Amino acid sequence: MTEMTGGPALPQERRVVTSVPGPKSQELMARKQASVADGIGTVMPVFAKRAGGGVLEDVDGNSFIDFGSGIAVTGVGNSAEAVVRRATAQLEAFTHTCVMVTPYEPYVEVCEELAKLTPGDHAKKSALFNSGAEAVENAVKIARTYTRRQAIVVFDHGYHGRTNLTMALTSKNMPYKHGFGPFAPEVYRVPVAYPYRWLTGPENCAEEAAAQAIDQISKQVGADNVAAILIEPVLGEGGFIEPAKGFLPRIAQFAKDNGIVFVADEIQSGFCRTGQWFACEDENIVPDLITTAKGIAGGMPLAAVTGRAEIMDAAHSGGLGGTYGGNPVACAAALGAIETMREMDLAARARRVEEIMKPRLQKLAGQYDVIGDVRGRGAMLAIELVKPGGKEPDPQVTAALAKACHQDGLLVLTTGTYGNVMRFLPPLVIDEALLTEGLDVLENALAGL
Ligand code: PLZ
């Protein structure tokens, strides 16, 4: 059994002992191909055996430096001590009653924590769900019933999930939407302030993008038909786009002026990832509703909608729920993850990650013309890869770079509307030496392109 121990006990080292993927992973991949639907893709074709701290070990004994955290989930590290301790105790006490049948304390405790941790000192309530997409769906339900309006405004490059409603809210066709329509109605998409790609340049991007967005909402939808404006404070799957400063406050103010519920989707950016508990704190935004998932529970499936009590209470009793939403083991894990974030001050650790990584990425951008932009905050950083001499996206070079990193023991993820962004999402507990070594691997891979 000790052989299977992951968590922080795992040796914190990069170790490549076979070709990647190794023979055991290749064997398992053949079984996956025969039994798992092709729609479930694979970023790095190795099978995980153990993971913890800043590394992931595969079935062939290779140990990868983890710059992905399972897509921004294991901020506290895999199998973090407090997560395992609390979830194990809960597993032994009971696994499920269904909160709608007989409630339990951990559910309430998570909602109490969310009220404390999310921005704003107004009265707050929460409802818990299983996945990010489910949280977003419920935020929309709540906003619609509160406002008695139907339209939902989302943004270019936005990502909100893969269910029917959240596919409609998501911007990118391939792979998320292609062939899966028809999509839910009353969803309207407007421009976002993407500084690197704003046609008139980054200087007036915030103002111009906000003006265009507000004009489109006013002229094409009608502000008083809009139930909610939904935005990721740092757009994740769209390419780690930080909206130009000033954009979010203007949109939030427009929502406030027009009785529109402002929803921050912090599913990827939340829970210390960007160096603050929530990314919208960066510009002092206080959302009416906030959706969270991913980092909230150290890898267990849990999601939440948190917001102004009067909005959250708009849905009638029995109008929200689900069999598993706020499962007690997932809630116990979340309490362990929150305890870890607090005790280790993981927001500060995320800022330290930025301090180490960003200057190094900027230096690489100076050396390699394929890096068009370096951006992000905390431990949510990215480089955008382009054809040298211009800004034409280069998804091929991005994929080649990712593959080279994988083969040399660094787990990296790509993202972006144009598939040309390499993102860095290390666990917030990663050793500084591993961070630096991961950057060395990246640098070598760039040199070998
Ligand atoms: N909102 C901002 O980032 C999930 C998607 C990976 P679920 N992002 C990772 C993939 O290819 O499916 C995400 C997000 C934001 C909502 C979601 C959806 O969260 O837990 O995947 O449903």
TrEMBL record:
Transmembrane segments: none annotated. Its cofactor is pyridoxal 5'-phosphate. CDD domains: OAT_like. Its EC number is 2.6.1.19, 2.6.1.22. Keywords: Aminotransferase, Pyridoxal phosphate, Transferase. PANTHER family: AMINOTRANSFERASE CLASS III, LEUCINE_METHIONINE RACEMASE. Belongs to the class-III pyridoxal-phosphate-dependent aminotransferase family. This is (S)-3-amino-2-methylpropionate transaminase. The lineage of its organism: Bacteria, Bacillati, Actinomycetota, Actinomycetes, Kitasatosporales.
